[in-house]
Amino acid sequence: MSLIQVKNLSFSYDKKRPVLADITLDLDGRSTAIVGQNGAGKTTFVKLLKGLLKPDFGEIHIGKTSVKEATVASLARKVGLVFQNPDEQIFKGTVRDEVMFGALNLGQDKETAETRAREALERVGLGHLSETNPQDLSLSEKKRVSIASVVAMDPEIIIFDEPTIAQDHAGKEQIKHLIRGLQEQNKLVMTIIHDMDFVAECFERTLVFNEGKLLMDGLTRDVFSRQDVLHQAHLEPPSVTQLGKKLGFAETFLTVKELVSGLRNGGNR
Ligand SMILES: Nc1ncnc2c1ncn2[C@@H]1O[C@H](COP(=O)(O)OP(=O)(O)OP(=O)(O)O)[C@@H](O)[C@H]1O
Asked: CA 258 to CA 197: how far, in whole Å?
């Protein structure tokens, strides 16, 4: 089922140099990674989906709603965006108030917002920090607070911008677990990300942006099979994919488990 439809979308900040040119795609329920080198237009694209920027040309529909005609409040219910830099999002005096803020703004009553905030904080492993001032937290914790704030709003579509930056192994595992849980709740999870290992493990579909254009849209395995596309977009395949190729396998492995099973079975070498 199509959740987001993008048709002939173009955008420029200065109305001269196009930052996005003629993007057409359909997003369904599959978890989707957005990759591409710095400046490729990824953040601009998700800001357009959220209605924070207006297209110069083209249409975006979230379900049946045209983003152009929707109010910011109605879009906030449908699309949650976790910014790359948590300081752009955090301003309340306690972690709990911060995480409740968006939910209250959407019209949830205090009790529901409190429950949602508590659950969201547990899901990112920060349940014990609800009375702390967010400014006293580490960058990794602040990022997870900003993730929890959006999760507590319970939108149908959740978009992350670089969720794994500043996360150690445990933080990444927590985010991986959260993403899987959101998928099980039938949310569309999208992320802008430079960490290809994380893409391989968590995202079924991948969009490759290059210089404002959609260079490839496909299953993550198919994208990581395309050396030519990766080269053009200045991307390195995940480490496990590279190792599989160096070992002479024809398959594109996405996880260590797949590589190990390839080694055990002899694979296609
Ligand atoms: N507010 C702005 N005003 C003018 N130009 C901008 C603005 N924001 C981004 N740009 C320019 O638009 C282009 C695309 O930027 P965007 O942030 O969308 O890329 P990106 O793929 O998300 O990059 P990154 O991976 O570095 O976040 C870049 O050339 C950038 O300099």
From this structure: 13
